[in-house]
């Protein structure tokens, strides 16, 4: 991969995915694209990129984009946000909402661990919750929908008793039980696209997504999240992520790392 | 405050070495034992805060150790994490019902151990 190739990849990632492919990821990019080149029938990364630049094909372009996204995720990553969700938000929202129905969105769900963590909490409490999970990568969505994890993945964030309760072993992997898989609706979606119509969410988890985005795209994405959230809803981002520099749509909640609510100005605008 | 202690019980010196490096990284002072009997001797003189426990070992296996430890005075206190190649749900359930706080399936890595230590409230 030449420096020019990498710059074109950076531009591709920025325009289509809003993803900031930093220079330190050059080796990682080369490493990740090897298997894509083989799968797509090319004799290496270089011929694949040359073909892509000569005649951009959407399917090949997206295969490349998906391979370069940061898909790292855990069950109950950082724990505290998930405890806040199950111990405080779910009971309060369940009481406040008509019929007790709580709508939750896992935005940028990668292979689905976050969405399943939220669904397990809801099922454990017998709360009425609709979990929607979206990701830019259709491969990630396929993986998430299958709910199949390696021994390494299943142990990152799950206790053994929770694992036994919700997953069954199959060929060296652990597969989510049908009732857990059915509790989450997975669909491919790009956070850069105009949000569609539909009911707004009570809680949005969009963790470790914004930090990888192009700074110039962050504000629009944050404001789109704000439009999809009810006025008294909550947004969780990564514990070390901040929104204040990009948008005034949200304000941080004191003492809760990564938890944001709508700022008064966005609430009055929405009203 | 005294540093928190972890006893690593495994008949494989390599596993003990790998686990020690990770657990020390979590801020623990580490002792090692190669089987359950040696480990019980450790525990009767100084009860560790956390025990990382293999299942199949010579002399005294992990499950026998776990039951004997829990019967000792103060033996309820340590957080016990089984750490073995056994991955069948029946064996995992057996270990948990015998008094293990959590269960690590080998192979593991630093992120998994850290996650499991957090799960039982040890870090």
Give the helix/strand layout.
The complex is a heterodimer of chains A (271) and B (123).
Chain A: H1 3-17, H2 26-39, H3 45-54, H4 58-68, H5 80-96, E1 102-107, H6 113-124, E2 129-135, H7 138-146, E3 148-150, H8 151-155, H9 160-166, E4 167-170, E5 173-176, H10 178-181, E6 184-188, E7 201-205, H11 215-227, E8 229-236, E9 250-252, E10 259-262, H12 264-270
Parallel strand pairs in A: 1-2, 1-7, 2-6, 7-8
Antiparallel strand pairs in A: 3-5, 4-5, 8-10, 9-10
Chain B: E1 5-9, H1 13-25, E2 29-33, H2 36-45, E3 50-53, H3 62-71, E4 79-84, H4 89-97, E5 102-105, H5 110-119
Features:
heterodimer, A: 271 residues, alpha/beta, Chemotaxis Receptor Methyltransferase Cher, domain 1, Rossmann fold, 2 domains, seven-stranded mixed β-sheet, three-stranded antiparallel β-sheet, 18% strand, B: 123 residues, five-stranded parallel β-sheet, 5 strands, 42% helix, globular
Task: Give a structural overview.
The complex is a heterodimer of chains A (271) and B (123). With 271 residues, chain A is of the alpha/beta class. Chain A has 2 domains: 3-68, Chemotaxis Receptor Methyltransferase Cher, domain 1; 80-270, Rossmann fold. In chain A, 46% of the residues lie in helices and 18% in strands. Chain A contains 12 helices and 10 strands. In chain A, strands 6-2-1-7-8-10-9 form a 7-stranded mixed β-sheet, with helices on both faces. In chain A, strands 3-5-4 form a 3-stranded antiparallel β-sheet. The radius of gyration of chain A is 19 Å and the shape is globular. In chain A, 39% of the residues are buried. The mean pLDDT of chain A is 94. Chain B has 123 residues and is of the alpha/beta class. Chain B has a single domain, classed as Rossmann fold (3-Layer(aba) Sandwich), CATH 3.40.50.2300. Chain B contains 5 helices and 5 strands, in the order E-H-E-H-E-H-E-H-E-H. Chain B has a 5-stranded parallel β-sheet with strand order 2-1-3-4-5, sandwiched between helices. The longest helix of chain B is centred in the first third of the chain and has 13 residues, at 13-25. Chain B is globular, with a radius of gyration of 13 Å. At the A-B interface, helix 8 and helix 9 of A face helix 4, strand 5 and helix 5 of B.
């Amino acid at each position: 991969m030449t420096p020019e190739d990498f710059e074109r990849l950076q531009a591709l990632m920025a325009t289509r995915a809003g993803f900031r492919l930093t220079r330190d990821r050059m080796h990682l990019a080369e490493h990740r694209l090897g298997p894509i080149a083989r799968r797509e029938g090319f004799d290496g990364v270089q011929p694949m990129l040359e073909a892509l630049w000569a005649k951009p094909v959407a399917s090949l372009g997206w295969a490349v984009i998906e391979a370069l996204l940061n898909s790292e995720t855990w069950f109950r990553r950082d724990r505290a946000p998930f405890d806040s969700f199950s111990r405080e938000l779910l009971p309060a929202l369940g009481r406040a909402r008509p019929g007790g129905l709580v709508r939750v969105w896992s935005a940028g769900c990668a292979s689905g661990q976050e969405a399943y963590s939220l669904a397990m909490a809801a099922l454990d409490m017998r709360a009425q919750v609709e979990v929607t999970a979206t990701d830019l990568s259709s491969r990630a969505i396929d993986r998430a929908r299958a709910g199949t994890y390696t021994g390494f993945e299943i142990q990152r964030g799950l206790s053994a008793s929770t694992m036994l309760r919700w997953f069954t072993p199959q060929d060296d992997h652990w597969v989510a039980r049908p009732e857990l898989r059915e509790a989450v609706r997975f669909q491919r979606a790009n956070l850069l696209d105009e949000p569609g119509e539909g009911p707004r969410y009570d809680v949005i988890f969009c963790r470790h997504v914004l930090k990888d985005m192009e700074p110039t795209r962050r504000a629009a994405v944050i404001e789109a999240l704000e439009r999809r959230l009810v006025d008294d809803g909550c947004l969780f981002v990564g514990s070390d992520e901040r929104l204040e520099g990009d948008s005034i749509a949200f304000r941080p909640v004191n003492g809760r790392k990564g938890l944001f609510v709508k700022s008064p100005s966005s609430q009055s605008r929405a009203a | 405050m005294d540093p928190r202690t972890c006893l690593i019980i495994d008949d494989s010196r390599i596993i003990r070495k790998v686990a020690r490096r990770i657990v020390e990284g979590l801020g623990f002072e580490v002792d090692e034992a190669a089987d359950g009997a040696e480990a019980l001797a450790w525990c009767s003189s100084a009860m560790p805060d956390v025990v990382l426990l293999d299942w199949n070992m010579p002399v005294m296996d992990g499950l026998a150790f776990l039951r004997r430890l829990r019967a000792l005075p103060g033996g309820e206190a340590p957080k016990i994490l089984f750490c073995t190649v056994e991955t069948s749900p029946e064996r995992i359930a057996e270990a948990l019902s015998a008094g293990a706080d959590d269960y690590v399936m080998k192979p593991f890595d630093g992120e998994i151990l850290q996650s499991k230590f957090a799960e039982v409230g040890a870090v």
